[in-house]
Amino acid sequence: MLKFQNKTILVTGSGTGIGQAITKKFVENGASAIILGRRKEPLEETAKMLEEIIKEKQSNATIKIFDGVDVSNEKAVTGMFDALKSENVNLDVVVNNAGVSGPVTCFAHAPMDEFRSTVGIHLTGTFWTSVQALKVMKEGAKIITISTFFAEERPLEQRPYRFRSPYTASQGAKNRLVEAMSWELTEKGIISIGTNPGPVHSDRIYKTVYPKAASEFLRVSGFEDLTPVEVETANKEILGLLGEDDETVKAGIKSAAQKLGKEETTLTNLLDKVKSIAEKFKKHINNDSRSAIFISRTGCHNGSNTCR
């Protein structure tokens, strides 16, 4: 039984990660999907996968792509929903999923432009997407907003992500927005739902967030004879080498050493230390995600790793 047959969903940031997984699950259950994001290639790959599912399930679902839509861009979001309205599309579910990691740095070092960008995508993007979605939603429709368990309130309070103040702050504000919408949209018969899942297994977390947090830790605490500025500069050159083969790493270290005027051994040691600390972050989060308290907070069961 396809329980979402003849239903239409829209998921922001649906080309990869959680957004893609959510869309896939809906389509497997018969829903038509509108997918959007900033990058065209991942959306096209996702659409291809979804079309295969539709064919396999023999449903009457359809897939529509809006590529190049950044939810922080007011005109792009407005234009998308105006186009849907002109096509007489009715949305049954809107999922506010689009997000970014934001700057991974200590509070006093956070750049203003990246703070604005993080808030623009997480908070402003969720606000404006939800406002515009009302043009094509009827009574009984739902707006689902994805946040994070790091912004969970008491009694299940979590400490914010260290070195990720812009991300945590914008996600916390997004939770309050969900509550405001739930009150104001009641009269329209539209339901606002928020969910605060925990860490998810993804390349973005393992290859970007954890290494950046590790490099920031070393910038603040110091490493060998490098100054904080030198640690920061060096990490910008070498972080991209994580996960590469030995020859690529060796060549990258040599190039960075020549560019920065540092010993290759020093940069190799720095990269190894970043990797070691990042692995500790990963292990700590994974251990938390297996605990009963963590699982109760995220609403996950049976050790599921489908959380954020």
From TrEMBL:
Protein family: Belongs to the short-chain dehydrogenases/reductases (SDR) family.
Any matching Pfam family: adh_short
Oxidoreductase as UniProt keyword: yes
Alphabetical keyword list: Oxidoreductase
Organism: uncultured marine thaumarchaeote SAT1000_06_F08
Entry-linked InterPro entries: NAD(P)-bd_dom_sf, SDR_fam
GO molecular function, one term: quinone binding
GO BP of this protein: fatty acid biosynthetic process
Record protein name field: Short-chain dehydrogenase/reductase SDR
